[in-house]
Amino acid sequence: MFDATDLAQIPVGPAAAAGYVDGRWPTYAALAARFPHARLLSIAVSAEHDADCLDVETGDAAPADVPGWYARQRGRGIERPCLYASAGLMQSGVIPALRIAGIPRAAVRLWTAHYAGRHICGPASCGELGIDADGTQHTDRAYGRDLDQSLLLADFFAVPAPQPAPVPQPVPSPAPVPDWQEVMLQALPEVRQGDTGDHVRTVQGLLIARGHQVTVDGDFGPATHDAVAAAQHDHGVPADSVVGPVTWAVLATGAP
User: Fold this and answer.
1) CB-based burial, 6-24: b 16+ in 10 Å, e otherwise
2) Which of 12, 73, 165, 180 gives 20 to 30 Å between its CA and that of 195?
3) Do the strands 2-3 and 109-113 form a parallel or antiparallel pair, or are they unpaired?
4) CA pair distance 252, 247, nearest whole angstrom
């Protein structure tokens, strides 16, 4: 798959191409007209806009925007919304945001940027991701041009097979469904110095996404302790370095 701010850089007859619906280079409409027979992926740089893919990087959307944007795209019929980020931010920010929001891995497409040779990021390729991505942008100089090129899984554009309609059953009125932040506050455990494991990794990933310098190693040591205290102080939360419900909310959304 190719993408470029100058559509003239894209080779004739691409199998797949991507373009932006917003931002400084809104190329998608022209892309669709220029390559009507290609598989096309629309990209939004702002979580306020709808598209097939959300661009998560500095200056564009943030990991905390992912759950709300994802829910809106599913609501308008996108079966597997796509999330684009550098390999580092995908691992430290996007994947933790998906985990906190309870979004299944199979319900999204993960598209990374990692300029380290032709590959798709994952544990068995570059090792930058703990899970396999669905595609990786591996160069921004394809054919010696100002042109991005990505390697995609064969089913990247596949539409899931429709499921048989369930037989209607009488059901009582459902209780209100809590939003993802409420689910997060109820489900996540308290994490503190000395703890280890996946929840510590999630804390560390969210700290990195908020600009704090820690290592995602699953060990809640002194550096993580100090970074949590700094994040709490920045948002007016008692700086006790314990990640409870209020601090989880701060790290995930930027607000208690």
Assistant:
1) ebeebeeebebbbbbbbbe
2) 180
3) unpaired
4) 8
Q: Directed axis angle between helix 66-75 and helix 180-187, to 10°?
A: 130
Distance in Å from the first CA to the final CA of the chain:
40
Q: What is the DSSP letter of 113?
A: E
**122 secondary structure, DSSP code:** S
Token pair 């544990």: residue: 123
Indicate yes or no: pTM above 0.85.
Answer: no
Cα dihedral: 245, 246, 249, 253 (round 10) = 180
Amino acid at 163: Q
Q: Which helix (H) or strand (E) holds 85?
A: strand 82-86
Q: How far apart are CA 171 and CA 150, in angstroms?
A: 46
| Total length of the chain | 256
Q: How do residues 124-138 score in pLDDT, each as one tens digit? A: 999 999 999 999 999
Tokens standing for residue 29:
């409409």
Strands (E), the chain: 2-3, 16-20, 39-44, 53-55, 82-86, 109-113, 135-139, 148-152
